[in-house]
Design brief:
The chain is about 45% helix and about 10% strand. The chain is mainly alpha-helical. The longest helix has 21 residues. The mean pLDDT is about 90.
Length: about 90
């Protein structure tokens, strides 16, 4: 049976919008929490390294899932954040 990308993610996220459901499935909850902490750290280092004035940036988050990156950009003071996701559950 072939399923679409949308069906795959709708099924995967039907258990809830959390880092476990968007992260590495077999790795477990604690691993995914640490993985996203690292991603947050890397994101902030890249923004700093590129000397982006995030308060003047319009951000687009494609495949927003849990909204993890939306939260990070909002915390950094992004001017505007637009999100797009192909699942109803994430939107």
């Amino acid at each position: 049976m072939n399923i679409t990308n949308q069906q795959y993610w709708e099924n995967r996220l039907s258990g809830g919008l959390n880092l476990q459901n968007v992260g590495t499935l077999r790795a477990g909850h604690n691993y995914n929490i640490w993985l996203y902490r690292i991603r947050n750290h890397v994101l902030r280092r890249v923004v700093k390294h590129l000397k982006l004035n995030i308060k003047e940036c319009n951000i687009i988050d494609l495949g927003t899932g849990t909204g993890f990156y939306v939260q990070q950009f909002r915390e950094m003071g992004a001017k505007h954040v637009t999100v797009i996701d192909l699942t109803n559950v994430a939107v």
